[in-house]
Design a protein that fits this description.
A hairpin with a 2-residue loop joins strand 6 and strand 7. The longest helix is centred in the middle third of the chain and has 14 residues. Strands 9, 12, 14, 15, 16, 18, 20 and 21 form an 8-stranded antiparallel β-sheet that branches. A 4-stranded antiparallel β-sheet has the order 3-2-6-7, with no helix packed on it. The chain has 1 helix and 21 strands. 5% of the residues lie in helices and 37% in strands. The chain has 2 domains: 101 residues, Immunoglobulin-like (Sandwich); 169 residues, Glucose Permease (Domain IIA) (Distorted Sandwich), CATH 2.70.70.10. By secondary structure, it is mainly beta. The chain is globular, with a radius of gyration of 19 Å.
């Protein structure tokens, strides 16, 4: 059964949310952007308790609003424009995704193996993907994200989220994060409170730290020269997690920051006052 509630991407003037399900409504600290790689805010049927919401089989954040409840939905880059549907307590609630064009980026990488991995590299990448897959879905019950973030390190924003990347003439996956040009060794800090759920040296990401902020909100900070935190460590916003580097597939020192909601990578600029 589908509830014809229409597309309900709300302005902050009309929308209110709360960090805790039992708290009073409060304004969400970002502007919704219902495009591939963006975040939609969808009004839900009014009820006393938080509804159970999923999108593409993944649980979705809910917040109280002045009129009931809303869902805060991460939209993957692969999503097609047009009508989509949330599953809300077993019923379909529609919302619309708008079209978004992302520019092309051509990159030259010295190490050709980072573009066309050999068989040994492919086996390593497959192992790492298995390791990372559940991390993107981390949902620590004790953590309730505020959805307010700070830039993890100072620097100019360079390669933008969503760019269609071509490495050494070979098309590859769109850019799933935000690059910040910073000097080697500069401190990298937690963009919001959370818990370190995975660290390691990965083929593409290099030295990387995954932080679960709660309710399926996860940050990846990578290409680090040094990692200074351990798995399981609880962080406050601004705590140092490592230092800027150029490990993995990188053309120079910078920080790559990916941000994920309901297992969909979204543009971090949304939460820094920008728009995808």
């Amino acid at each position: 059964m589908r509830l014809r509630l229409g597309t309900l991407v709300l302005s902050l003037a009309a929308l209110a949310g709360s960090p805790g399900h039992g708290a009073e409504p409060q304004s969400l600290p970002f502007k919704p952007s219902p495009v591939p790689g963006g975040v939609a805010v969808v009004a839900l049927p009014a009820k006393a308790t938080a509804p159970a919401v999923t999108y593409r089989g993944e649980p979705v954040i809910t917040r109280r609003s002045s009129q009931g409840w809303v869902a805060v939905v991460g939209i993957p880059l692969s999503a097609k424009p047009g009508e989509q549907a949330l599953e809300v307590d077993g019923r379909g609630v529609p919302f619309a995704i708008k079209a978004k064009h992302y520019p092309e980026q051509r990159v030259h990488v010295e190490d050709q193996r980072k573009v066309t991995p050999n068989a040994e590299d492919e086996a390593r990448i497959a192992r790492e993907q298995v390791l990372m897959a559940p991390v993107w879905k981390a949902w620590p019950e004790a953590l309730i994200p505020s959805l307010s973030f700070r830039q993890p390190t100072p620097g100019a924003l360079t390669a933008s989220f969503g760019m269609r990347r071509i490495f050494n003439g070979v098309p590859r996956s769109p850019h799933s994060g935000l690059d910040i040009r910073s000097p080697q060794g500069q401190a990298v800090r937690a963009p919001a409170p959370g818990r370190v759920v995975l660290t390691g040296d990965f083929f593409y990401s290099g030295n990387a730290v995954f932080i679960a902020h709660g309710e399926g909100v996860v940050s990846l900070l990578c290409h680090l020269s040094k990692i200074t935190v351990k798995e399981g460590q609880v962080l406050q916003a601004g705590d140092v997690v490592g230092e800027v580097g150029k490990t993995g597939r990188a053309t120079g020192p910078h920080l790559h920051w990916s941000l994920s909601l309901n297992n969909a990578r979204v543009d971090p600029r949304i939460f820094l006052g920008g728009h995808p």
